[in-house]
Amino acid sequence: MEIGILISGRGSNMVALVDAVASGEIPASEVAVVISDKADAAGLAKAEERGVETLVIERKGRKREEHDAEIVAALKDRGVEIVCLAGYMRLLSPMFVRAFPDRIINIHPSLLPAYPGLNVHERVIAAGEKRSGCTVHYVDELLDHGEVILQREVPVLPDDTPETLSARILEQEHGAYVEAVKKILTRERARSEQREIEYGFSARH
Ligand code: GAR
Fold first, then answer.
1. Domain range annotation of the chain
2. Contact 156, 165 (CB under 8 A)
3. Is 121 a catalytic residue?
4. How far apart are CA 74 and CA 60, in angstroms?
5. Phi-psi category of 54—alpha, beta or left, where left has phi over 0 and alpha has psi -120 to 50?
6. Ligand 1 atom at minimal distance to the Cα of residue 108
7. What class, spelled out in words, does domain 2-204 have in CATH?
8. Fewer CB in 10 Å around end: N or C, the chain?
9. Please, is 116 exposed, middle or buried when counting C-beta atoms within 10 Å of its C-beta (0-12, 13-18, 19+)?
10. pTM, to two decimals
């Protein structure tokens, strides 16, 4: 399975996925490309150090559809089947979502559907929540929205700052994202085996 990863910044979730593919923890897969919508994303150098192709497709001053069309073309050119958003901070257009049905996933640092969007940890602490966490989910056209694949919870401690809470959740994010990708790759392989069985059956009858 060819995986494409989209980033906008630090890229620690991207690194977790790239390393899990390289070690075989995510089996029989390859990270075909890491694409950033920002030229100064720190994650780009981390992907290059790991020998992964990187591309910058800047969003600045462009319409969403036009920007997305260029990203979709780059992913398709490389045979990408699964798209992982890893701190990619732009909503996808309907065209992008339709180009990879059920094959785009995202990670978000809250227990969705609670706290989509930005400044999550500030809002969680201000609301006096006792628990928070992260969610890996399928992507649709809405912000941080779509069927949940898995979640991991952490406690919110009385003296937490947005930074300490963010760090506790990020530690869980990396493992959660690897686990979610393994889960959907298993499902995709089962689907493609099923299609082969059905194709073989219809070819014989
Ligand atoms: C992560 O915490 C991720 O969950 C969040 O951005 C951070 C990216 O960090 N994503 C969102 O908020 C999506 N709405 P990273 O670049 O180190 O992976």
1. 2-204
2. yes
3. no
4. 18
5. beta
6. 4
7. alpha beta
8. C
9. middle
10. 0.94
